[in-house]
Structures are given as C-alpha cells and as structure tokens.
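Here comes an entry:

___
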Amino acid sequence: MAVNGVSATGGALPLDGVTVLDFSQFLAGPSCALRLADLGAAVTKIERPNGGDACRDLDLADQRRDGSSALFHFINRNKRSYAADLKDAGDLSRVRAMIERADVLIHNFRPGIMDRLGLGFEAVSALNPRLVYAGVSGYGPDGPWRDKPGQDLLVQALSGMAWASGDGDGPPVPVGLSVTDLMAGAQLAQGVLALLVRRGVTGRGGRVDVSLLEAAIDLQFENFSTWLNGAPSPDRSRVAGANAYLGAPYGLYRTADGHIALAMMPVDRLGALIGCLPLENWPVERWFADRDAIKAELRDHLLGQATVHWLGLLEPAGLWCAPVLDWATLATHPAFRTLGAVQSMTLGDGTNLRTTRCPIRIDGRILTNDRAGPRLGADNAALDAERERTP
C-alpha cells in the first residue's frame, strides 16, 4: 500500500511530493489521476458541492457503497476531495491558491469552459509557471465535433473501431469496455510524466491535451496505417472474425464445450496436428485470400472435441492458442492468483470493496492502496488548514 507517496514495502514512490488537482469526472481524467496517485502523487479531487463528480451516481449493476457508486471508489481510490463552487468568488479564490502550489492540474471540461472560469492554461500559468496543465476532451479543441458529447461508445462508433470489429456478415461490434476512456487516460498520464521530466530539466511547466477520438485512432494504428498506405478497406472475415488484415486461422472458434483462440500459425501444420485433412495441402499464398473457406473447415472440425483436447495437441507443438475464459474461470486460475491482481479497499463506513490494482511495478514492488474514493468534501478542512500554514 502506498500512503503519502510511500509504499508498504518501504521507500518513496517515484511521484512522492507531486501534488495533483483533479477537476475531471467519470473515467478518462480520473483514470489518469488514479495512475499518478498509484505512483505516489498526492491527488485532490475538486468537486461541485452539490453532488460532486457525476461518477458518484453512475451505477454499474446497481452497486452503491458509502453513498456513492462502487465505480466512483474504483476510479478514485487514494484521493482526497475538496468541494468548491468554481462560480463562487470565495471558493474560486481558495482553489486558485491551491493551484499556485500544485504540480499538476487535470480537467475534462468541454473546450472553453476552463477559460470562462478563469482557470484556462494562460491564466493558471501566470499563477504557477511550473504547473503541468493536462486536459482531456472528446474530439479535440477545434473542428465540427468539438462540442459533441465525449462518451466512450459514441467515440467507438465515430472512430471506425466498432465498424472494424465482428464478423463480416454481421453488424458492427463495440468493445464491451470503456476502452477509449481508459486509453485516453493512460496517454494523458504519459504526457504528464513527460512534462514533469522536462520541468525537472528546465523548471518550466507546460500543457498536454488528449482526446478520446485521438486515443481511439491511435489504438487502431496497426490496421489504420495499413489502410493509409494503400491496402484495401478492411474486409472482415465472415467466419471467426478478428483482425481484418490477417489470414487464416486468426480468430475465435467454438469447440465441443467452449471456445478456443487461434493466432498466427501455418495452416498446413495446424491441419496436420488436428487431423483436418483439407488444410494440409492448402497453398500458403492462399491463406489470406481463402481465409473464410479455411476458417469454415476449422469451424466445423473444431466442434468435434473439447477445448482441452485441442490445446493438448497445439500447445506442445508451440502453436499459438488459448482457451477463451470467462472472469470466473480466470479468477481461479493459478496464473491469475500469482499476479496478485486484485486488492481490497476500505470505505469510510468501514465496509470493504475488491478491485484491480495498479499494473505497474516499481523496483520490483507491487503497488496497492486500500483507501477507497473519498466522501464529497471530506478533506476541505484539512486542505484549508494546509493552505493557511503554507507561506
């Protein structure tokens, strides 16, 4: 566990002493601030007095704990909360005083709102030239989409990500996770860390901006770049669709009792190992052009045995394959337990929640923290006292 920048195994974490003000809501900005907190930064959420971060009311599966959604606690663990009305002159003055001493400011307001509040980059840089100013938006600062709602599913739809997924004769398929939110948060954290490094050399802060749309486009760089350089528009395989630019057998297949993933491997060798005779002499130059025909042969053949049977033939031969696991199966697997990927958090009312931990290890140390998301305004008194003590 990391408390005030120190891990339970001893020693300061890399961002010990770094102060972060998190004005953001929902997932993208808060996930960036979460990762900085995991690495030792002291993160304070600046929230509206009436309701706070809108994520407090964003329930997943009707899970509420200690007055807020469980998701709020997951994405805001190890942070403090300062309630302030940014349209109130007194509250804004106190927040500006906090900005003067901060190292990083994170926000995800729509373009122009921070400027109207008097907290745009130019204004706060005059207060604190060393500040790293980090913003995440839906579609960037300009253009016809700048004021559209920056929501994960909408960005998956607009970016081509959903269109590029699924079987060729089926509809577009979205990723079943908030993937663009979390990718944008990760990229924002990279930018923040880069500017902190530069500040260590030059003493100068700076600004980093990321949008969900740019994160979604970058996430598709492999196939999108292939298309940009003359490849035909992706034609999704109609059988076991996965990557539109990879040949057979790449995809997921039903077996007698589940599903199996087959990655890149020689079709003829695969056919020989599993006894699918039509594949043994399929010419290599046709593995992409004839992928649907090859995959159809595999689809029918693999239904004949259980997943473990096929794994027993393919894994010893060094062919890339894996069972398709659900969460219940994954969570009981020795490989998952060895990672120690789950941690517990204690809420303000004393109850516990389980969540994932930071995936980064520092000097071999696993980073966890048992502090759940803060109650709204819980740290106003302590932070006001800190501000008054600081010259």
Remarks:
- Residues 31 and 75 are 6 Å apart (CA to CA).
